[in-house]
Structures are given as C-alpha cells and as structure tokens.
Amino acid sequence: MEAEQPTRAFLVPAIATGLALALLAAPLLPALFPVVVAAASVAACALALARRPSRPLLLVILGLGLWLVTGLAGAWVLRGRPLSGLAWVLAVLYLLPLPVIPWLYWWTFEERDE
Amino acid sequence: MTALAVLLLLAAGLAWWGARRARDSADYFAAGHRGGAWLVGVAGTAAAVSGFTFVGGPGLFAAVGAGSLWIILSAPLTGALQCWAVGEPVVELVEKRRVLTIPELLAGRFGGPTMRVLAAAIVAVGCVASLAVQARAAAVLGEEFLHVPGATAAIAAMLATTAYTALGGMRAGLVADAVQGVVMAGFAVLLAAAALAATGGPAAAVATLEMARPELLGGFGTVAPPQAWAWYLLFCLGTCAQPHYLQKFLFLRSRAQLRLLPAVLTGALAATLAVWIGVGLAGTALVARGAITLGRPDDLAPRTMSLLGPWAVMLAGVAVLAAMMSTAASFLNMAAAAVTRDLREALGKVPLPISAARVATVLFAVAATAIGVTSERAVVLLGLVGWGFFTAALLPVMTLGLAWPGATARGAVSAMATGALVDLVLESVRQHLPAGLEPGLAGAALGTLVLVAMSRRIR
Question: What global pTM score does this model have?
Fold first, then answer.
C-alpha cells in the first residue's frame, strides 16, 4: 500500500479516534448525534484526500458536509410536521443529491499516471 | 412452479457457459479482473440488495413511516463514499498484487498469517449465516409470492444459484448478478409505479396518510431520532465493510473504471429502492383506506401485490428471488475462497484447485439451506451475524487501516476481533440498549480505538 504524505497521515488516526469516541458518546448525548453522523460520513469520504489531495476534492468534501448538516438539521426542525417532514427528508437528503454526488465523484476523479 | 422451472433452466445454461470460461483462480474468484463499470456496478447492486428491500422495507414503512427511510437515505452518498474510502485503495492493491479475495487483500496490506486466518474466518462465518438467512427468506417469500411450498422455493433458488456459482465461479456469477440487477431494478420501478397508481398517485397516497396516520409522515415517522441517525450511519459507513460490496472492486479491469462506478451503483440502487418508498407509501395508504388488512407489517408488500393482480405477484416473486440469488452467489463464492484459498495459504499450504472450490460451494449451499429451512431458532441466532457484524469487524481495517500507514498487523487483528466480539455481545442484549446505540457501530468505534492504540503502542 502506498503511504501518503506524513504531514497528512498523522491526522487520519487522530480524527478517527475523535469520531470513534464521539460515536460512543452520541447515544447518551443525542444532540451530538447529527454532528457525528455528518462528520463521520464526510470523514470517510475525506480519506481520499489523504491519498490524492486536491482543491476540487476538498471543496466537494466541504460541500458534502454542509449538505449533510443542513439536511439533518432540517429533518430535526421538521420532525413534528407531517408532510413537510417527509418532503424535506425525501427531497433534500435523497432526491436532490442522487444525480449530484456521483457526478461530483466523476468530476474529482484523477486518472493515475502509470 | 413454472417460474422456478424457468429459473433452473436459465441457471443450467449459465452454469454451462461459466464452466467453460472459469479457467483459473482469477476467473473463478475475481471474474478474471475483467469487469467494466456498468457490469460491475449493476451486478454489485444486485449482490448488495436482498429480499428485505422488497418485503421488509415496505413493511417497515407501514410500521414506522418515514423513519424507515433513514435506512436508505444514504443511498445517494454510498456509491461515491465506497469508491473514495475503500474502492480506490482496494483497486490499487489489486493492480499491484492481483489479489483475489478480501482476506488476501488485508494480508497483503498488513502481512502475517493471523490477519488472513481471522479475516477468512469472519468472512466464512458471516457468509454461512447470511446464506442461511437468505434460504429462510426464500422459503417464506416463495410461499407468499409464488404460492409454492417454502422448502421447494428455498431449495430451487439455492440449487439454481449453486449450479452457476459452483461451475462458473464469479465469471458466471457476475453476469448472472448483472441480469438479476436489471430485472430487480426494472420490476421495482414498475411495481412502485403500479402501487402508487392504485392509490391515485403519490399526492393522493400522502393525503390519505395525512388524514389517517399523520405521525408516519414527520421527518422521523415514529422512530426516535437517535435511532434514525444511527441507522443512517450504519447503512452509510457499513457499505465500506460488507465483503459482498468490497468484492466488486476485485472484479474491475482497471482503476479508470472507478470514475463511472458511483453513477452506476447509485442509479441501480435508487431504481431498486423505488419499491421501498413507492410500495411502502402506497401500501400504507391502502391499509389506511381499508383496501387491505395486515396481520403483521411484512404482509404489506404481498397484500399490495395481490391487490394489483397476479402479474404483480409474479413480478415481485421473480424480483425477490433475483435479489436473494445474487446475494447468495457472492456469499457462496467468498465462503469457498475462504476455506480453499485463504485459510490454506495462511497456514503455508498450496491453495486447493478450483474443483475443490466447486465442492466447497456445494457444501456451503447444502449446509445453509438445511439450516435455513429446518431451524428457525438457528436462523434467528445466525441473523445476528449480518450487516452490523461485518461493519464492526471490518470497517476499521478497511477504512483507517488502508489509509493510515501507521496501522500495524497486530493492531488490525485486535481491531477485527474486538469489533466482532463487541457486536455479538451487544446484539445479544439489543432490547436493553438505548435508542441510537447500534451494536455494529459501537463495535466499529471500539475496534477503531483498539486499532489506533495497539498500532501506536507497537511503534
């Protein structure tokens, strides 16, 4: 396995440790949960940054984080409202990103020099 | 019965085709590393989707409403996530070392026989458990949809799957999975549209529920938000740790194929999940109107299909069988590889030939079918070793382990053992756990801490 740049490598276990601890604490502190969900999902995507850092990929990862935080927060705000709650969840968290995220991957994919 | 007979005939033809093409271990276990993004993406989705999507998903919607959707809401993200987090390093390692299995890949990354033995054991145990659950589900759903004795449906589905998987390995399995994936996606969209049309359209179905069961239409339905968030995370990150998901990366012919893969995975998955949302919403509205009645939530899909007519029952039955067979084919192949290749090489012995893998495939199929058809209690116990188990055992090593050069073999082995053990213990006391504490996620979190701690200590 190719080793990534040491300057970035130290971040990977540090972030993973923090997320693991937060994930274990989240069921006891439910307010922490949406942040952990967004952070863990985005951190997993960001593993690609450790291998092939680029500005477009960084922007995409940050954008995904913003989208997830917005989507999860909106679902929480609308939790007691029938119809608008379902509409938000389906539209913002499901239908809207369906064509976008695969395209973002395609856009940020880098062909490797052989 | 006719559907089952056609199924067996098609499987026999595919087995004959595959047997002529599976010439070596690479063909048999990794489809010769010749797959393109379209073939692998559709086949990978078929292997990933089980009968639960067609029956359990709509049933869960009837029980908890929009809360059930948190299991599938990560679908837009998971295709890209898998490629970013694990697909790219896995494909690069495959290109470098031509590995054929996930345990071999992990041994290639971390070194040492212990890693490969433990990974092979986890894969084999998890595969057998999942196969038994698939066989059981085939029996139940064969009775519901195809109106044949449960044991007949389970044996026919497993016999057909075993025929082409044993003879043709994943050369045949990949083609079969892709065909099944197209069938599942097409039928899912058709059945969802027909169910919604029967209620007068999505707006009418929603209006019915808004009047009769408004609590189902909130952002979380009747599910506690922490539980919904935990489902989201489990089924989002968990895609990076399921062996039958990871296996598809071994089939790709080059790294360049990854570029299109998330689009294919996401498109195929979204089409198939239409049945969860469409039949769930429409069926629940039909229940609210009194058009159908349920004995239990899982009756929703069969009863809705019955209302639509015999054609819908038949299509749903075929789609469910396709979902089960494609999932079972991957598990059979991986279990055979674990015992005939991974365990032997880890113990310093020469891998057994393909003929032995064929025999192992048949034996695994027989054992899983026997357990699935005869022992409900065993199936319940084996059901614990599923998505959460693989997530707990493999997520830390597949994500952190592949990305962090400082991860050591001892740390990885400890993480896998810790994650698997924690998951099994917590699953056994699941009813006492607080909402949001998912055993698979807790196991993965503790496994991650162990991986970091043990790796740092050794260094």
Answer: 0.93
pLDDT of residue B384: 63
Instruction: Determine the average pLDDT of the residues in B360-368.
Output: 93
> Cβ(B64)–Cβ(B222) under 8 Å?
yes
d(CA B328, CA B206): 36
Cβ–Cβ of B277/A85 closer than 8 Å? no
- Torsions phi, psi for B35 (to 5 deg): -75, 145
Instruction: Report the Cα B72 to chain-centroid distance in Å.
Output: 13
Q: Which residue of A has its CA nearest to B447?
A: A20
Residue A7 burial (CB count, 10 A)? 7
Is A82 near chain B, with CB under 8 Å?
yes
Neighbours of B204 (CB within 10 A): 16
pLDDT of residue B195 exceeding 90: yes
pLDDT tens digits, one per residue of B300-315 = 999 999 999 999 998 9
Residue A81: what pLDDT? Answer: 87
What pLDDT score does B3 carry? Answer: 64
Distance from CA of B397 to the nearest CA of A (A): 12
Q: A109 and chain B: CB distance < 8 Å anywhere?
A: yes
Q: What is the DSSP letter of A92?
A: I
Residue found by looking up tokens 């990150």 in the block:
B237
CA angle B318, B320, B324 (to 5 degrees): 115
ipTM: 0.93
Exposure string of A83-108, with b = 16+ CB inside 10 Å and e = fewer, is: eebbbbbbebbbeebbebbbebbeeb
pLDDT at residue A1, rounded to an integer: 45
Residues B100 and B452: their CA atoms lie apart, in Å, by 27
- The residue of chain A with its CA nearest to that of B217 is A82
The CA distance from B249 to B239, in Å, is 13
Q: Is the pLDDT of residue B63 over 80?
A: yes
Residue B151 — very low, low, confident or very high, per pLDDT cuts 50/70/90? Answer: confident
**Is 50 exceeded by the pLDDT of residue A2?**
no
What average pLDDT does this structure show over B169-183?
90
Cβ contacts (< 8 Å) between A70 and chain B: which residues? Answer: none
Of the candidates B142, B126, B207, which has an alpha carbon nearest to the alpha carbon of residue B427? Answer: B126
The answer for residues whose C-beta is within 8 angstroms of residue B162's C-beta and 6 or more apart is: B332, B361, B362, B365
